[in-house]
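Obj.: predict assembly geometry.
Materials: sequence records (below).
Method: joint structure prediction, all chains together.
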Amino acid sequence: MTHSNPSSQIRLNPISPTYWRVTFDNPPLNLMGPEFVLRFREIMTAIETDAQLKVVVFDSAVEGFFLNHSDFTAKFEDLTAIPAGPTGLASWPDILVRLTRTSVVSIALIRGRATGNGSELALACDMCFVSREKTLLSQWEVGVGLVAGGGPMTRLPRLIGRGRALEVLLSSDDITGELAQIYGYANRALPDAQLDQFVDKLARRIASFDKWAITNTKRLVNAASLPPDVEMQAGWDTCMESFVRPAAQTRVKALMARGFHEPGDAENRLGEYIGSQT
Amino acid sequence: MTHSNPSSQIRLNPISPTYWRVTFDNPPLNLMGPEFVLRFREIMTAIETDAQLKVVVFDSAVEGFFLNHSDFTAKFEDLTAIPAGPTGLASWPDILVRLTRTSVVSIALIRGRATGNGSELALACDMCFVSREKTLLSQWEVGVGLVAGGGPMTRLPRLIGRGRALEVLLSSDDITGELAQIYGYANRALPDAQLDQFVDKLARRIASFDKWAITNTKRLVNAASLPPDVEMQAGWDTCMESFVRPAAQTRVKALMARGFHEPGDAENRLGEYIGSQT
Amino acid sequence: MTHSNPSSQIRLNPISPTYWRVTFDNPPLNLMGPEFVLRFREIMTAIETDAQLKVVVFDSAVEGFFLNHSDFTAKFEDLTAIPAGPTGLASWPDILVRLTRTSVVSIALIRGRATGNGSELALACDMCFVSREKTLLSQWEVGVGLVAGGGPMTRLPRLIGRGRALEVLLSSDDITGELAQIYGYANRALPDAQLDQFVDKLARRIASFDKWAITNTKRLVNAASLPPDVEMQAGWDTCMESFVRPAAQTRVKALMARGFHEPGDAENRLGEYIGSQT
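Observations (raw structure tokens):
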């Protein structure tokens, strides 16, 4: 997996002073490596510190992939070497926690696969709208002997209830847009042809409102709904522990031998591939 | 907006010693002013102190409106001058908190618009059934620079999850009966022609059960599900702060110039109007 | 009601070292008496102590009944005489709490009626899949003057929200498979013809994954989602108190005179029968 200029892996596009787009553009699979995390952290700081910004929409420029699992060809040390962020959490959970806390409203516009990091980002956004036909959400980690690191164990049960959260996490299977709406994993699954316009209209609508009212309303919702940081931390620590276990190393390696990390069936139909390990 | 005899704004109708109806009847828009709150408080005390009562159903006698936002033509001082209630909270959140805690079972039967106070009442009721065709639920406050005062920031995330709660509150848009069922904002959206009979049958059914069993079951559900009063208080305080800000005053005034507070499009299609401010 | 050999009331069937079936087989109604509880406790200990087991599926061998309410013809003292379990809770809530905490993944496969204990078991399982056509879930207790003892007051609001939880508990009515999916009471309602294969495939899938990853993922979900034991205890204590009240004794006796505890309409259409007491 070659690494292009990190600043090009995520594009920041201000539609207006109050409404930005952040577009994931790391073809062909929108994997997340250490450089991607560093670039995301820069953008997170920009979101937090801009005085006028009210709404940020996350989307993808890569066909078939909103945001994908971690890049297993990257050096593990390059990820763990990134210093902790201002929350005291490691870089990736730090970004996600800051996104939930900032007064800027975040909307995930999901078309294509949102697996691992992609699902974790969706769960950290304030809202999440997905393409009914072209979305697969998943937390695939348990299926390869890993534990997820970006908070789904603490966020999913609060969002969709314990039973459905355990199904998503322990089955490690792909969840379609339609099921994501039924489960409440996404706000709504919209017909693909309407998704872009729907999200753009909603973003512009919220961006037209008073920032003080937005900020204080989100602050009070957060008080009632955000998990404690210690649960994010515990998930991350367990994820790190799982990475170096032989069970995970063996399973990830076996999946790579079947085409994982390359465009094609293993990535497109990951849920099925995970279910047919030998 | 003329104020009729306050006792006529809400009608209390005992169907039987164990089953009462409380009917909102403040035409043409079922707005809530200070007199409405005072009358509601009297009824709340009657509900709490009756020894035989088991079920109360809230409905409306006003075509198109279950219960609407506050009356902005009323004097703000008339509202803030009402002494705090027994919970220590201001009058409106006090009524809502007492409704959740009383052993009497409350059911909202919603046909027409339930905006602001109407939605807050629905969220404080033990159950909520809505007309599939004729219901619009909304928390419109952020759209005019306000913060909601009756608890939706603390109740909605617990009921429908953080993402959908933030969408309802930050979009400030109208939510149809059908979407309310999908989101879990209402228990169920029933065909309009079946709604009255369904709720009446359910109310009579529960009213036929043993009061001790009802009381203790609700008490234990409450222990697992009610938000802390401090979150209700924080929401109310922020609401009061938002009312006097120029951002809200300007936006409400502009909406009034377009027909708000009068029968017609601005009230009927409030979500759209809020989205098309200039 | 004759009591057969207790060990035959629940059958333990290891499909493989990592995947067991536990089948309720107490015809004709799958009632739960003291012997059933003792047998379930043995099985719970076996589940907890087996080193290889990863998934257990609960199902029924009795046509029309997954798992039913308690056996009211059994001696109350035989139930209360069972010593508390390792959690310090009484035998039935002890089993349910241990099921939620064990690292073994539990799946309820529900076809037929799951009333009282049956619903409480479903709520304690990690996942629950039901037959769309042939399932009725219910917490019937309030309808006969009882309070439920196995935790639905604390689990249901966390799973399906306060409003729907209060409806299920206070209406004491039968909930169809379709409504159970809409409410999130079950993970999914599947066409009856697909249910067995779906659950078996899911169980085998999870059983093929790494036990350490399963264990740690479930542990972290539990931290975010399980109710405190004190709420289970409070529910059980109130249930015991309700049992000996004349209101419950009279109502249960009246229902027995109408065919309750025998195969037939009173058991099959329990929700209707409860709603037509005189």
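Conclusions so far: Chain C touches chain A at residues 105, 125-128, 158-160, 181, 184, 186-187, 202, 205-206, 208-210, 212-214, 216-218, 220-221, 223-226 (CB under 8 Å).
To do: check interface contacts against the pulldown list.
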